[in-house]
Specification:
Elements: H1 6-25, E1 29-34, H2 39-44, E2 55-60, E3 66-69, H3 75-78, E4 84-87, E5 101-105, H4 116-124, E6 128-131, H5 133-141, H6 145-163, H7 173-186, E7 191-198, E8 218-226, E9 229-237, H8 244-263, H9 270-283, E10 295-297, E11 304-307, E12 321-329, E13 335-345, E14 348-351
Parallel strand pairs: 1-5, 3-4, 5-6
Antiparallel strand pairs: 1-2, 2-3, 7-8, 8-9, 10-11, 10-12, 12-13, 13-14
Helix pairs in contact: 1-6, 6-7, 8-9
Domain Peptidase M24: 151-333
Protein name: Xaa-Pro aminopeptidase
InterPro entries: Creatin/AminoP/Spt16_N (IPR029149), Creatinase/aminopeptidase-like (IPR036005), Creatinase_N (IPR000587), Pept_M24 (IPR000994), Peptidase_M24B (IPR050659)
Length: 362
């Protein structure tokens, strides 16, 4: 018996939700297009490769879903998603002649991939469209059971990649990042990027050739795509011998993260969640050295809802999966980062992977 990959099962559930939404809107179907983001992956399970490649999806209210790819040689691989697949020059090529009103999904919370040419082509055919981005953003926040399973599998790859990290004095950040990325890709990640920071007060950033000096702390941030979803994890490699400043900073990040998790209950305001983490840092006089935010939703892309930043006016929803991370960066002083995925359930938040390096204090 053939086992259907989890990303294909997750996508099939979401396609039916999109189809039902299109029926409610009284339109012919939904046209989904993405170049580098993952709207098509979310609804098909197919992950395009190559910088210049893109894919589109036509989900009709009635009839057969069709996947389109711009590279003809990708057709055979794309067909592994179990959908009728064709080569296209434009997403509009997927529309049946009779289509007159459609939903259009080409953007998410931060990136709009619709082009002027796409709108011109729709207008030339007399096709009216409605934007489905808001519907998709809200739908993505509450994960299906299949998506939670896929995200858990991706988290395992993130944990494995961080455990593969080693850094010795004299090595460059290129070497450190390469170890992490190689471990992730070998474990099944479609893409992986490891950011590195050497020394107290450093940012984590793309490798630049910096060499690690003896006694320097190492910060790591891993972003990867696997099983049709995005994963984001962070950790700190303390210097040897251990320094009290680094040990204290890691412990404080862990304490602030624990306070955030405790406050992540359904119905709680996001502002209150942020205040819970800020309060821990403030008690130790380090709030002004907080770097970045406290996290964001995880799913087929990043960021998704909820975003742990003040002023959103949103509340925590049961079913959300998000990266919760804390970073301190005090020039010449406390520097550490720690973070990974949690899932919000009716009773509160729990670690998606309790045994992971970001979750296990031992």
């Amino acid at each position: 018996m053939t086992t259907i990959p989890i990303e294909l099962r997750a996508a099939a559930v979401r396609r039916e939700q999109l189809r039902a939404h299109a029926r409610d809107l009284g339109i012919d179907g939904a046209l989904v297009y993405s170049r580098r983001r993952s709207a098509v992956t979310w609804l098909s399970g197919y992950t395009p490769g190559f910088i210049s490649h893109s894919a589109a999806l036509w989900v009709p209210t009635e009839g057969e879903t069709v996947l389109g790819v711009t590279f003809p040689f990708e057709v055979d691989r794309a067909r592994q998603a179990g959908l009728r697949t064709v080569a296209i020059d434009s997403p509009v090529d997927l529309l049946p002649e009779r289509a007159s009103s459609i939903g259009l999904l080409c953007r998410d919370l931060v990136v709009d991939e619709a082009t002027p040419e796409l709108f011109q082509q729709l207008a030339a055919r007399g096709v009216r469209h409605v934007d489905l981005a808001s519907w998709a953003a809200e739908a993505r926040e509450v994960k299906t059971p299949e998506e939670v399973t896929a995200l858990t599998a991706a988290a395992r790859i993130g944990d494995l990649a961080l455990r593969a990290a080693t850094a010795s004095p004299g090595e460059t950040d290129y070497v450190v990042a390469a170890r992490v990325e190689a471990a992730a890709r070998a474990a099944g990640a479609h893409r992986c990027l490891c950011l590195v920071g050497f020394g107290n007060g450093s940012f984590v950033t793309e490798a630049t050739g910096q060499r690690l000096e003896a006694g320097q702390v190492v910060g790591l941030e891993v972003s990867l795509y696997a099983f049709g979803c995005f994963m984001h994890v962070n950790t700190t490699l303390p210097p040897m011998p251990a320094q009290e400043t680094v040990t204290d900073a890691v412990g404080l990040c862990r304490s602030a993260r624990a306070a955030i998790l405790e406050s992540l209950t359904p119905g709680t305001g996001v502002d209150d969640v942020v205040k819970a983490g800020d309060a821990v840092l403030s008690q130790h006089g380090l709030l002004r050295f907080k770097e970045y935010d406290f996290g964001h939703g995880l799913g087929c892309d990043t960021p998704e809802y909820p975003r742990l930043i003040p002023g959103t006016g949103r509340t925590v929803r049961s079913g959300a999966v998000l990266a919760v991370h804390v970073m301190l960066r005090r020039p010449g002083g406390e520097t550490a980062m720690l973070g990974g995925p949690v899932v919000v359930e009716p009773a509160g938040a729990r670690e998606l992977l309790p045994e992971a390096v970001w979750a296990d204090p031992h």
